[in-house]
Amino acid sequence: MAALTVLGVAAAGASGGGRPQPAAAQPFLTELGSIVTVANALHAQAVRARTRAVRRRHDPKPRMRSAATISLYERTVAPGSFGRQGCRAAERGAAGVVILDFGKPAYNGRTYGTVLFSGAFAANRDITRAMLGYAEGYVRCLPRGSQDRIVLARGTSNYHPSVPDVYRAGRKWARETMRLQHDLRAAHLDSHVVSAAADDVEPAWDPSFRKTHDFYRGYADSRIGHALYNYGSLDGGIVSGVWNAHQAFYVTAGMRYARPIPEIYNRVMAQEWAALAQVAKRRYHRPLRFAGVMTERTASNHGVEPKDAHRMLVRELAVQGRGTAPASVPAAYTNIRSY
Known about the structure:
three-stranded antiparallel β-sheet, 11 strands
């Protein structure tokens, strides 16, 4: 009440038709300024305390074993190499989503495929055979009686696709995803390995959104029922970023098979994805169905640890949710690197 009285007296004196204040009023105004400064500082401190409390309350502590995998940038489609990759994954106890990134969509004049990270062209069918080799190596090296399971996703990107028809490239990517599932079933590997697709979607690579939309539309029109994981970024978010909210939402949840495994390399990226989750819930009435998080940590770059990236996203979802139930993020992490 004392603070209110001081504020009321000062306000009354200040409203006197713009007349200059007498010298005797100056100490009161100085004191008032000090009170306001202290009040603002206390308010900011209280806001920070509430934010920390929300983050602590939603600090993820999974009660079940987390799913951790290593995803890979691929330089070859030699089946033998992929058998070794799969075996090492099984020996590490990998369970969850594994993305094998084969580079951007490409066409060699005869067939669709990708440009690998070695610069070589790889046909879609050769990619499928390589992935089957990974699955065979994974199952062969599992401990006897193991119930471990991976979702093996064929990864590409929206980086300047060099194909005559991006929509058709999306349809073919879907068809090969289904072909791998058939091959897994025929080889009796499907109890441990499930086929999926993935796309490293970066708005800055396709500012118009046209080619990315065509690829996703082609995949969706194939109606294969297998997830297409978006393991990309938001490049500035949905306010000041490259794409608007509707475009970003489409490639994460708007297309029926889209599922996000967002890149979380720092807290800003976590904040951007949390903001999109709020838009999805409030504007489109559909939660983002996160499948985990992706990191790119190596011994040389000292990037964010996968578990820390997961914690960042969960906390930002809680803070931006402001009391509403935040979108859930399973304790699933994949760290991508070169083989």
